[in-house]
Amino acid sequence: MNRQELIHQIREKKSFLCVGLDTDTKKMPPHLLNNEDPIFEFNKSIIDATAPYCVAYKPNLAFYEAFGVKGMIAFEKTIKYLKENYPTHFIIADAKRGDIGNTSAMYARTFFEEYDIDSLTVAPYMGEDSVTPFLGYKDKWVILLALTSNHGSHDFQLTEDAKGEKLFERVLKTSQQWGTDENMMYVVGATQGRMFEDIRRLVPNHFLLVPGVGAQGGSLQEVCKYGMTKDCGLLVNSSRGIIYASNGEDFAQAAALAAKKLQEEMAEELAKHIS
Predict the structure, then answer these.
(1) Phi/psi class of residue 85: alpha, beta or left (left: φ > 0; alpha: ψ in -120 to 50)?
(2) What are phi and psi of 155, to 5 degrees?
(3) Separation in Å, CA 272 to CA 14, 36, 96, 192
(4) Which of 77, 96, 225, 261 is the catalytic position?
(5) Alpha-carbon radius of gyration of the chain
(6) 179-225 pLDDT, tens digit each
(7) Of 5, 233, 234, 248, which has the fewest beta carbons less than 10 angstroms from its beta carbon?
(8) What backbone torsions phi and psi does residue 179 show, to the nearest 5 degrees?
(9) What backbone phi and psi angles, to 5 degrees, belong to 14?
(10) 3-class state of residue 10 by DSSP
(11) Backbone dihedral region of 54: left (phi > 0), alpha (psi from -120 to 50 degrees) or beta?
């Protein structure tokens, strides 16, 4: 999916919601555990319920790799189901890969060729040669970790050099020499608040993937106030707040209601910020 196609979907649905498929068998409704593939059955139900309200899905690889081969089969089935039934939805593999060049090239091959996923989260801290192998694929996206939503982000990302430049700022500046706003996004946590102003001064046109709204306490309105662009420029992710809205047999309906509520808030923000 290219940039214009993504923007079209956002405008069409009046939504920039990304649903995180962080599927944990310990949190899913107990009645699903009797299924041959409970992870896929849960994902399928969540996808069918929330698809009208979101533009993207983000399976987090840790929640699949934890179950070995069975988990990765469920991941592959989920991707196949999305591509066959919801081809206009943007798919993000949240894998946070990044290694020396030849290893990154194999990771890129895995996700962009084998699974044919739209985008992949990548850790940029090994530098240019760990990122550029992911950037050679047409209409595929690299989503670099920049300023994350977790408490420990302050340990390194906000440290300053002698000139007062923060580490995440250097990541934003340097990485723009490797890719463009047509193939690179950045992860910026919703909990960072007004720091979106500083980020937009450095990357005024790039899309930002924004986790941390809802369960982690980030404010959608604050993210939009400081981070939205004329093309929206945001994909706001919600995982636990949607997929675990209920632990009963009504889990899919509860997920749909949670997604719809966020979509309606997003429609209001789009109306305020985009003519």
Answers:
(1) alpha
(2) -60, -40
(3) 12, 46, 33, 21
(4) 96
(5) 18
(6) 999 999 999 988 777 889 999 999 999 999 999 886 656 789 999 99
(7) 248
(8) -140, -175
(9) 50, 45
(10) helix
(11) beta
Q: Which residue has the tokens 């749909």?
A: 256
User: CA nearest 178: which of 233, 89, 109, 98?
Assistant: 98
Interhelix angle 68-85/38-50, nearest 10 degrees: 30
- The 3-class SS string of 92-124 reads EEEEEECCCHHHHHHHHHHHHHHCCCCEEEECC
- Catalytic residue status for 83: no
DSSP sequence for 27-61: TS-GGGGGSSSHHHHHHHHHHHHHGGG-SEEEEBT
* Sign of the torsion angle spanned by Cα atoms 85, 256, 91, 22: negative
For residue range 134-179, what is the model confidence (pLDDT) as tens digits?
Answer: 999 999 999 999 998 888 888 898 898 999 899 999 999 999 999 9
* H-assigned helices in the chain: 3-13, 38-50, 62-65, 68-85, 101-108, 128-131, 153-156, 167-175, 195-202, 220-227, 240-243, 251-273
